[in-house]
Amino acid sequence: VQLQASGGGLVQPGGSLRLSCAASGSIFSINDMGWYRQAPGNERELAAIITKGGSTNYADSVKGRFAISRLNAKNTVYLQMNSLKPEDTAVYYCNAEIRGVHYWGKGTQVTVSS
Predict the structure, then answer these.
(1) Torsion, Cα of 74, 83, 6, 41 (10° steps)
(2) pLDDT digits over 89-110, tens only?
(3) H helices then E strands: how many in the chain?
């Protein structure tokens, strides 16, 4: 199973970005899909997660600004990020849980700076 993330980049404070992550390979059914992030010097942390049924959960720091969604037919998860702040700068990793095994994408850099 491979996860390919895209959509990162440089954006000014207050701007928006949309991340995408597509899973491919021998996939029977993906359970939870999520986005984690890791800023320099910090541990990796959960930003948002979505279940197969569409229930979502967010880190307090991104609630009201980020929205996670998924398209099960395409094994794809999205993260719409609005009102971005410099503290959102990090490498963002997508994650998919399949039969108890967690798979990770390589990460995409998001930099929020003027």
Answers:
(1) -120
(2) 999 999 999 999 999 999 999 9
(3) 0, 11
